[in-house]
Structures are given as C-alpha cells and as structure tokens.
Amino acid sequence: MKKPNGYWYIKENVLRTARKCKTRLEFHERYKHVYPIAKEQGWLDDCYKHMGKKETDKIRRWTKKSVLAAARKCKTRTAFCKRFGGAYNVACRKGYFEECVKHMTGLKRWNKKKALAAARKCKTREEFRRTCGGALTAAYNGGYLDECLAHMIKTRKPANYWTKKRILEAARKCKTRAVFMRKHSTAYGVANRDGYLQDCFKHMGKKKTGTTTIVWTKKKIREAAGKCKSRAEFTKRYNGAYCSALKSGYLDKCCKHMIKKGNRFKKAIYAIVFSNKSVYVGLTFDYEARLAAHIADQRNKNVKALLEKNCPYRVWKFNKWFGNQTIGKEEQRVIDAYRKRGFTILNINKAGALGGRGYTRG
C-alpha cells in the first residue's frame, strides 16, 4: 500500500519499520526507499540499536563461492535478483551467471493446452491477467484468446453505461468521496467531465477535518521549511507549502538555512586532505551523499589504502557551483595549487571526468 507524502519523514514510522529487521543488511535490502531517508535525517543509529554489531552487517564483497551459495537459496532468477541484487550483478559481470541459475526453474512455455487449463481456473479476465499473464499473452499471440475467455464472467461495463441516473445511484451507496472514487472510478470521471460531480456528494456531507486543505500562510511555510534540511526534502514533505512559497516569490528566503545541492549540470569541488600531506580532489552535486559514499565504498585504491590505515583527514568544501563546461578547469586549478604546495595527488582520473551519468565523480 502506498504511503502518503511525508510518511517516511516521521521518525517513529522509520523506527517501527527497522524493528522488523534483524540485521542492518536486511533493513538496507528490504527497505531501500527508507534507508536513504533515515541516513539523511541521522536516525540510522536509533534504527540499529536492537540489531547489535554482526559480521553479516559488513559491506559484502561477493566472491564466486558466496554468489553461488546465495543463488542456491533461490528457486527462480527473479527471486535471485530481488534477494541478492549485488550477487546477481557480479555473476552477470564476471561471466558465471548461467552456472548460478542452472538449478532454477526455467521460463514457462505456454501452449494452447496449458493456457486453456490455466484459464479454466479463473472466473474473470482480471484474475486471469493477474495470475497467468504469460498464458494470456500466449493466447493473444496464438489467436485463441476468445476460447480462453469464453466461460468467464464479464465485469467490464458496456459503452455509454454510465448515465447520470446510474452514477447518482452508485454514489448513494458510498459513504465518502474516496470510496466512490475507488469503487467507481469511471463513473467518477464521467460525473466530473459532465459537471455534476457535486450532486453525487450531496448526501456525503462535508469533508472530514483531517482532509481539509491547509491554507499555507507565510508563517506556516517558514515553520515547515525550518523542519527540512534541503529543498528536495521540503518539496517531498510539504509540497503544498513549497508550491505556495514558489508562487509568492519568497522560496529563497524560506530555504536560506538549507544545504545547497547541485544537479546533473551543476557541481562543486571538494578536497580530502590527509595528514601525510596527500590530497584527493573530487566533484559532486551533493556533499553529504558523496562523502558518505567515499567512506562506505571507496573505489580509488590510493584513498582506500589510507582510509583502511585510519590515516587522519579533513574535508574541504569549496561551496562554489560550476557548469559542466567549466568544472574541469576549476578542478585542475585546485589540483595544481595543491601540487605547488608539495601535496601528493591521489586522483587517478583526469580533472573534469564526470562519471557514468555525469552526476558525481570520485
């Protein structure tokens, strides 16, 4: 069930979800959409309190042996991909994917006999589509779909079925607007199009106070913005407030305290300066996310070696945003400045390299 906007920005909801998991890894894999929010808000330690420190919580390095062991726990390729996405990707990249999936159930090949047998178990077209989508596709392509659907109950209404009289009758059976829209979405759409939707709601009364539209005053918008660390969080949690501030022209004032982030076309420079007088210079559109990624999964072997030795370091954020055309020159200027001061440069890639999708390079 889809959660309402801002649901995962309530700490109690995140903690309740985390309690369902026994390990950090399980929390990260089962709730991939919740983990980044918990990390951004600084709630991860609270989420992990009941889990303790375990070997299984370490970042996995998939070897062939561990990939094969993970694959044996799955009956299908889909299950393998969902449960062990990292292992699945490693197997594909290293070339032993077929070895991993040889014990798994292959794709079901539908013929007319099998499709008809599957169709007889379903009472409606919707049930057939939901439970045996492959059989339905095969029947359609093979030209025997009508034969499969012959015994099924037709739930779809004929063309022009929803007249005003029928729509009003259907609306009277519903206690709330939400129920009417969910149960009779087509009727709702026709009533809205033809201009008598309010007639359908007459017996329902006014909306509950919990569903009334909030009037976003300047004070309320400032209070909502004060609870958010970035514009992205502001628009996710309080979209109405964000839109009102944008229209009224005081969005920038509301967002003064927020951490500025770039995008695909605007990036900033940062430097990780180590105590042994070596430095790594990189580009990012999000300082916090990029630095967290450096610590969790460092691909630069020079930086990785120093981090593993627990070499002390400081991070310098330059807080100036540049376009893709000029960022390379600016980064090279920073590297040259450090080189002149006698620093060892840890960078492997050339200055200005933007990575696979042009977002971040490190």
Overall SS class = alpha+beta
Spatial gap, N to C terminus: 37 Å
The CATH topology annotation of the largest domain reads as GIY-YIG endonuclease
Under the CATH scheme, the architecture of the largest domain is 3-Layer(aba) Sandwich
**At the first level of CATH, what is the class of the largest domain?**
Alpha Beta
Structural Rg: 28 Å
Task: Report what the structure shows.
The protein has 362 residues and is of the alpha+beta class. It has six domains: 7-57, no CATH class; 64-101, no CATH class; 112-149, no CATH class; 164-209, no CATH class; 218-254, no CATH class; 266-345, GIY-YIG endonuclease. It contains 23 helices and four strands. It has helices spanning 11-18, 24-30, 35-41, 44-48, 64-72, 77-83, 85-94, 97-101, 112-120, 125-131, 133-142, 145-149, 164-172, 177-183, 185-194, 197-200, 218-226, 231-237, 239-248, 251-254, 287-296, 301-308, 327-340; strands at 266-274, 278-284, 313-323, 344-345. It has a four-stranded mixed sheet, covered by helices on one side. Strand 1 and strand 2 form a beta hairpin. The longest helix is centred in the C-terminal third of the chain and has 14 residues, at 327-340.
